[in-house]
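Last lecture ended with a question: if I hand you only a sequence, what can you say about the shape of the protein? Today we answer it with a concrete record. The protein is Flagella basal body P-ring formation protein FlgA. Below, first the input exactly as provided, then the predicted structure, then a couple of comments.
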Amino acid sequence: MKKSIITLITLMVSLLWVSMAGAQVLSRYEMAQEAGVKLQDLLRLHHPSLESHSLYFPRNLQLPEGEVDLQLDTMRLEDRPGRQTVPVTVLVDGTAQAVVDAVVVIRKNVTVAVLKRQLKRDDIVALGDIDWQTIQISREGFRYVSDVREIVGKAASRPVRANIALQASWFEEPVAVERGDRVRVLLKDGALVINTVGVAGKDGRVGEAILVRNLSSNKSFLARVMAPGQVVAEGL
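The predicted structure:
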């Protein structure tokens, strides 16, 4: 019995040795190195704004002996930064042996607006304040300014340093009416329109509603700021 078991083990080892004699192991690190170079070339060709930051394969592969080649399918890549997957076909002597999803971390180059000077809160952005820089982002979620019309003429809602990528949320409509200002008031009631003068009860930006005091009647009413020094009230 003991002799039979030893014979069986010897046979299994022999079979394993024979099966492995014509095989090779391709480590995930070797695959990552080769695929990383190919991916960079493909990105430059098809997605020039994207760059591969890192690439990862989940496991090693046992393959037949022969010349190994990797073919990457970048058609599924999205034009965005972050973690994505790339299908990689592993070939030996031109014959496909496996398809493995490589996990790749993508960075994206974007051109964004920056300031040439530091702004204090409520400073107004002029066209001459803006410059352009290309930065690399690793994730989505920030709405960087890519069009000067988004911020020119607007006020900084917070202090903003020079030479940093600008976000649209850092700017707002400037104060068009200040508390105590005399403002032109358009009183509308249907087709009737009356022009008069009032005093603003608080600061207001275009589109905001503020209290205005009528100089003639000394009564206050809500009016919407339409432009610097101008408000409109309806249905009074």
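Comments.
1. Residues 22-107 form one domain.
2. The radius of gyration is 34 Å.
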